[in-house]
Design a protein that fits this description.
The chain is of the alpha/beta class. It has 9 helices and 10 strands. The radius of gyration is 17 Å and the shape is globular. Bound molecules: phosphoenolpyruvate. This is 3-deoxy-D-arabinoheptulosonate-7-phosphate synthase. One of its GO terms (biological process) is aromatic amino acid family biosynthetic process.
Length: 264
Amino acid sequence: IVSREVHPADSVVQVRGQAFGGQAIQIIAGPAAVETAEQMAQCAELVKAGACRLLRGGAFKPRTSPYAFPGIGVAGLEQLRQESRRHGLPMVSELLDVRMLETFLELDVDMIEIGARNMQNVGLLKEVGRINKPVILKRGPAATLTEWLMAAEHIAAGGNHNIIFCERGVRSFEPSYRNMLDLSSIPVLKRETHLPVIVDPSHAGGKAWMVPSLAKAAIAAGADGLMLDIHPDPANAWCDGEQALNPQAFRQLLDELAPLAAAL
Ligand code: PEP
């Protein structure tokens, strides 16, 4: 279903009126983790002022350590929702556990993220395949492109064809960045599938100073959009502060991306 052989034309995935895979480069931005109502409100103001059209926020965090901050849960989804509806920015959040799907549907999360660690969680993929919400499917940290495409096929086989791939880098031998952004996956996926492909340069680089270069490279390589971590005060973030753009860096990146996006 996800193959271009079956569906030669590009598919456009609509997320509450925002199109992925069309002419525009879509930028999703927001905090890695929702912390407080104030922090979420500040992030939403920045996203809105920056002309980004979708708001992200992690409520359930898949941390490496069981003792690290795990997200504030349902309260985080509610705060994200409040800012989403206040500003007219569709909301995106990660579904970690199939038992929370009903809650995501009740709170009307506009786009469900399946994170890298769950890319091959077939039970979860099947469940989001049965609903009609758009799904962002992140690439597993060590997944081949065929495995990634087949994970999407699990979702599509259930009837939900509203899938957006998100490249976020893969595990490599190099310790100076978090993951190695695989830019080559963009042209390969654009060739193999009709579905949109976006890039998360924040989780790839893992360092805020790297994000602008990776973001620009992703757009130049043909990505349909970006997902960016931002924070009003990255040094005091509860999760992934090192990779979050501060307000000034975020505004500057958006300024730098505008002519690039327009030129494509
Ligand atoms: C995230 O987007 O918050 C996240 C945890 O990303 P990934 O699944 O790519 O690590």
